[in-house]
Design brief:
five-stranded mixed sheet, single chain, 4 domains, six-stranded antiparallel β-barrel, Threonyl-tRNA Synthetase, Chain A, domain 2, alpha+beta, Elongation Factor Tu (Ef-tu), domain 3, elongated, 40% helix
Length: 539
C-alpha cells in the first residue's frame, strides 16, 4: 500500500515502536507495573522539583440543569508532565501510549471504590491532537491520565478535559445508590450490625460488601430495595460539604470505615440533611445516609430514577455481597421481572385448566418449568423477585410430581383390577394376550401378572402397555412352569417373537420375560403374532 502511494517506510522506527509495544504488553500481562504510571521514584522527582499536587476540584464542577440533565463545566488545564517508559519526557509523538500529568483535572481518579472516568484530552490550539483517556490514577496527590495519543503533545501545552459524560452520570448514579443501599441495610438489619467491608462503583452496577450473621431473606432484600425507592421518590437533596475531621466524626449516625485514614478537612455526603441540619438535630444522622466520601454524587436522589438489587450472596464467612443496578438498567430489570411474572401466571393458569379437565400433561408442563427456570436464572432482575418466582415454580413442580404419583397409583390399581378380572374370565383358556391400561411401568405390569398368576395359576399371559409420553411400547409375559415343560411355551421366546415388530428388543427367562420398542403403530400386529406364536404350542 505504501509503494502504491510512492511512500517509504521507516523500518527502524517501526521496529522500535514494536519493541516498545511488546515491553508494555509483557509488563501488563505479567501483572507488572504500567510503564506510564507514577511509581515512588516518579513521586520523589515531582516533589523534588516542587511540582504542586494536581488540583482535583474541577471534578465536582457540575450542576443539575433546569431540564433535569446534568451540566458538566469544561475544564482547561496545562500539561505539567509527560511519562513514557517509566521516565518523564518533554514531548510524546503520536501513536504512543503515555501518561499525562495536568495542573488541574476534571477526571475522577480511581479511589474510594469508584472507578475512574474515561474520555479524551484535546489540545486547545490543535483539535486534531487527541489523547484518549483509558485510565486515571492518583498517587501522592498527583493525577496521572493514561491512554493513547494521536498527534504530538508537549509539556506546557494548553488542553481541554472532555469527560465521557454518560459514563460519569452512571457512576454518580451508582455511587449515590451505594450510600442509600448502606442506609437501607442498616434499617432492615438493625443499625450497627451492618458494617461496610468494601464497595465498587462501576458504570453498569454497584457492589457492596457488608457484615451479616447470615443470608438475607426474600423479605429483607425486598424491604431494602423498597427503602431505596422511597428515598428516590422523596426527591431528597444530596449535600456535599467539607468539614474538619474532628467535627465530622461527632455527627451521630455517621458511616465511615474508621480503620481508613481520612484527610482533614474531610468531605461529607449527606442525603436530605445539610451539615447545619445535622448539627441542630443530633439524631438526624440515624434518619438518613451520612458518610465520608470523596466520590462524585447526584444532586438529588430522584435523579437515580430507580434501583434493583440483583444479587445477594456470601463471599466469605460473615461477609455478604450485594450487586445492584440503578437508572435505566434498574427500569429494564423491573420490566423484565414484570414480563416473567406474566409468563409464570399464564403457565399457572394453563396448569389449573389442565387440572380441572383431568388432562395434565406432566412431561410438557415439566419441560416448561425447566425453560422458565432457566430464563429466571439468566435474567437480570431483583433477587427477591427471582427467589419468589423460583418458589412459585417449585410449588407447581411439587404439585405435578404429586399428581404424577397419584396418576401412576391409579393406573397401577386399574391394571391390577384388570388382571384379576382377566384371570377370572379366562379360566377355560391356556393363554391371553391383552393391551392393558396405558402408561404403566414394568413394575406395575409385573405386579399385575403376578396377581393374575395367583388368581389363575394355569394361565399364561402377555400384557402390552403404551407410554405415550416416552413413545414406547412395554411388553411383559409370564408362563407357568408346567406349561413351559409340557407345551414348550417359553416366555423369552414369546417376547422375542414380537420384539422386532415393536422396534426393540427383549429378553428374560423361560417363565418370565419382557420387551420394549418405539414402533407404537406395531402393537396390533405384535399382539396377533404373539397370539399365533402361543397358539402354535397347543396344536
Amino acid at each position: 500500500m505504501a509503494e502504491e502511494r510512492n511512500l517509504q517506510i521507516d523500518m527502524a522506527a517501526y521496529e522500535k515502536a514494536k519493541a516498545h509495544a511488546q515491553e508494555i504488553a509483557r509488563a501488563k500481562g505479567s501483572g507488572g507495573e504500567d510503564l506510564c504510571s507514577l511509581d515512588v521514584h516518579a513521586l520523589d522527582e515531582l516533589k523534588t522539583k516542587g511540582n504542586p499536587e494536581t488540583d482535583q476540584s474541577p471534578k465536582y464542577n457540575y450542576q443539575k440543569g433546569s431540564d433535569g440533565n446534568y451540566v458538566f463545566e469544561p475544564c482547561t488545564a496545562t500539561i505539567v508532565g509527560l511519562r513514557m517508559n517509566k521516565e518523564f519526557v518533554t514531548e510524546v509523538p503520536g501513536g504512543n501510549r503515555c501518561g499525562v500529568l495536568l495542573d488541574r483535572s476534571s477526571f475522577y481518579a480511581e479511589q474510594g471504590g469508584q472507578m475512574y472516568d474515561t474520555g479524551f484530552i484535546s489540545k486547545e490550539d490543535d483539535q486534531e491532537v487527541e489523547f484518549s483517556v483509558s485510565d486515571v490514577q492518583v498517587h501522592g496527590g498527583y493525577v496521572i491520565h493514561i491512554g493513547n495519543l494521536e498527534g504530538t503533545l508537549r509539556v506546557g501545552d494548553k488542553v481541554k478535559c472532555n469527560l465521557d459524560e454518560a459514563q460519569r452520570r452512571n457512576l454518580m448514579n451508582n455511587h449515590t445508590g451505594t450510600h442509600v443501599l448502606n442506609y437501607a441495610l442498616r434499617q432492615v438489619l438493625g443499625g450497627e450490625a451492618v458494617d461496610q467491608r468494601g464497595s465498587l462503583v462501576a458504570p453498569d452496577k454497584l457492589r457492596f460488601d457488608f457484615t451479616a450473621k447470615g443470608s438475607l431473606s426474600i423479605e429483607q432484600v425486598r424491604n431494602a430495595e423498597n427503602i431505596i425507592k422511597e428515598v428516590i421518590n422523596k426527591k431528597q437533596e444530596v449535600f456535599a460539604k467539607e468539614s474538619s475531621l474532628a467535627k465530622a466524626k461527632d455527627i451521630q449516625g455517621l458511616r465511615a470505615i474508621f480503620d481508613e485514614v481520612y484527610p482533614d478537612p474531610v468531605r461529607v455526603i449527606s442525603i436530605g440533611y445539610s451539615l447545619a441540619d445535622l448539627a441542630v438535630d443530633p439524631s438526624a444522622g440515624y434518619k438518613t445516609s451520612v458518610e465520608f466520601c470523596g466520590g462524585t454524587h447526584l444532586r438529588n436522589t430522584e435523579d437515580m430514577i430507580d434501583c434493583a438489587i440483583v444479587t445477594e450472596e456470601a463471599i466469605s464467612k460473615g461477609i455478604r455481597r450485594i450487586i445492584a443496578v440503578t437508572g435505566s438498567d434498574a427500569q429494564k430489570a423491573h420490566t423484565k421481572a414484570s414480563g416473567l411474572e406474566t409468563k409464570i401466571q399464564n403457565f399457572k393458569n394453563e396448569v389449573e385448566q389442565q387440572k380441572n379437565t383431568n388432562s395434565l400433561n406432566n412431561k410438557v408442563l415439566t419441560q416448561k418449568i425447566t425453560q422458565l427456570s432457566d430464563e429466571i436464572t439468566e435474567a437480570v432482575i431483583s433477587s427477591w423477585k427471582k427467589e419468589s418466582f423460583r418458589e412459585e415454580l417449585g410449588k407447581v413442580k411439587k404439585f405435578l410430581v404429586e399428581a404424577e404419583k397419584a396418576s401412576k397409583a391409579e393406573k397401577n390399581k386399574k391394571v391390577l383390577t384388570q388382571a384379576i378380572e382377566l384371570a377370572n374370565n379366562n379360566k377355560d383358556v391356556n393363554f391371553i394376550v391383552e393391551h392393558v391400561e396405558d402408561g404403566c411401568n414394568s413394575k406395575a405390569l409385573n405386579t399385575a401378572l403376578m396377581q393374575l398368576g395367583k388368581t389363575n395359576p394355569n394361565l399364561a399371559a402377555m400384557f402390552f402397555s403404551i407410554d405415550h409420553d416416552a413413545k414406547k411400547i412395554l411388553c411383559l409375559c409370564n408362563v407357568p412352569k408346567a406349561m413351559v415343560a409340557e407345551k414348550g411355551l417359553k416366555a423369552n421366546e414369546w417376547t422375542k417373537s414380537i420384539s422386532d415388530i415393536i422396534g426393540g428388543k427383549g429378553g428374560g427367562k423361560d417363565v418370565s420375560a419382557q420387551a420394549s420398542g418405539d414402533k407404537l403403530d406395531g402393537i396390533d400386529n405384535a399382539m396377533n403374532v404373539a397370539k399365533q406364536f402361543a397358539a402354535s404350542k397347543f396344536t
